[in-house]
Amino acid sequence: MAGTILLETKNLSKRFGGLKALDRFDFLVRHGEIVGLIGPNGSGKTTFFHVVTGILKAASGTVMFGERREVLTALPPHRITALGIARTFQRQRLFNQMTVLQNVLVGAHCRTCSGLFGSILRTPATRREQKVVQEKATRLLALFGERLLPRAQDPAWTLSYANRRRLEIARALAADPLLLLLDEPAAGMNPTETRELMRDILSIREQGITIVLIEHDMTVVRGICDQVVALDHGIKIAEGSFEEVRNHPSVIEAYLGRRAKHA
Amino acid sequence: MSLWMQRTALFLLTLAAPHLVPNDYWIGVLTRICLYTTLALGLNVVVGFAGLLDLGYVAFYGIGSYIYAFLASPHFALHLSFWVALPLTVAIAAVSGILLGAPTLRLRGDYLAIVTLGFGEIVYLLLINGDRPVNITNGVNGILGIDPPRLGSLTFSRNHEYYYLFLAFLLLALLISTRLAHSRIGWAWQAIREDEVAARVMGINTTKAKLQAFAVGASFAGIGGGLLASWQRSVFPDNFLFYESINILAMVILGGVGNLAGVVVGATLLVALPEIFRGFHRYRMLAYGLMLIVLMIFRPRGLFEGNRVGRREPETSTLEEETLSLVEPGPPVGQ
Q: Could you tell me the fold of the domain covering A5-97+161-256?
């Protein structure tokens, strides 16, 4: 498994009116990698996640996923999740009025199958599935030690900022993804929490889950990413190891700007 | 086990209720409470669980009533037993829920409310004008002579008999609602209510889930409609005015949207209070309105602190906002 291509995009483009959010973007992730996606704000990173997960439709290009290289470009989001891609959001999108546990249970939706009538009749199969999925959700909350588990029955909106980020990850993991897309997981976290997060992400990779993460915090990118891809204005400007990308002239220019010509 | 004792006490109270009220008129009021609670529980599935603001719920109530009337009256000379006609009614109402729900799937919030409101009016107009060119609904004259339910040798005729029948269906509706609230489907509905984009990304087929919500809501309305027709022994288009949709919605909101106990209390209060205020003649609706306003000021989320009304979560942005924020130049981010 390791080393084979898990996700590949070719010529992926997306426009918003006149703005090219993604411009012929080629991207590749192999099994077991952690790939960091960096770039200034508005460079198309989150748009890339939206397109891969099917929330936004690509203008052109293809997204291929898995061993059978299934084309995702025309699939609705729930089918893509079922194939094995889960994500978190840059601005948190938890189900705020639901409990912490229920948030994770929703994440397992595509891995469970109880239907309307099974739920009404509460058939033995439904009850069995409920028990299994509750145990799974509890196990996922336990990944974050004592951070989430004691709060399982509290509404999600009562959680602290960092805990909400953790819950988003737990919810995404409930979908049993092969590929996990994390959109700025460390945003708003203090240095201790960030270190903890890096450990958590590495332990998720240990479970065989491939990860792509968007991150502005370069200690995270340097610390855990095998590969780094830099985007600017929807165009891939550099890729390689963290050091290679960081010293790439285009990346420096994208972040810091070009020296004025007639100064 | 105090919760269990409370519930048993409450159940015994509902069983004894017809013997505790002064006269037959009040037994009728109790029966209406059961009817409207069943309806409100159905609307609660759509509005409370799935967060779809449906202002035309009365359409399904009307469809249920008329289907039952068609199946068990001299109108089409069909005289199906109540126990056959009601399940058929519920099934047809559920299908109508899917058919009316399907065109609204892409709509949200206010726009969904406007379209469903239109559906309510369309069904009402169809019932009124359904006597020409072919007489189907008998127009404004309604359908008369509907068969009463029979159970063994008992033919339902008196209010307290209907009360127990309606109570049984109310308990069934309550059981189904409770089970759905704590099920995979119920969680999916609530997820859609909380954040539809996130729900889709979490693997929920929102199209299917919303249609299921419409179908379940409409089937509760089908139960209510069938019960109304069999009790009133006649149905008229004017039983299904827009006012009824709002009334049922008020029951759902009063108790607290999405909260089952709240819905039961809300429906009970909104049926009982106008009767209690009946002695005040003309001022009765005024007092009722005043009470609703006071409630909205002091308990904006309903008596039972429901889930949803009056809430605007600052942190859940719409996808449009999120993509728009791409267009605006952000602050420079250093390493």
A: Rossmann fold (3.40.50)
A215 shares contact with chain B (CB less than 8 Å): no
Domain borders along chain A are: 5-97+161-256
Residue A106 near chain B (CB below 8 Å): yes
* Rounded-to-integer distance, Cα A164 and Cα A94, Å: 8
Closest CA to B260 of B170, B191, B181, B188: B181
Which chain B residue lies closest to A219 (C-alpha atoms)? B335
The number of distinct structural domains making up chain B is 1
Secondary structure E strands in B214-326: 234-235
**List of E strands, chain B:** 72-73, 78-79, 143-144, 150-151, 154-155, 234-235
Residue B88 · residue B70 · CB < 8 Å: no
pLDDT in tens, B174-224: 999 999 999 999 999 999 999 999 999 999 999 999 999 999 999 999 999
Q: Does B45 touch chain A (CB under 8 A)?
A: no
This complex has an ipTM of: 0.93
**Unique residue bearing structure tokens 């602290």:** A160
pLDDT higher than threshold 60 for residue B326: no
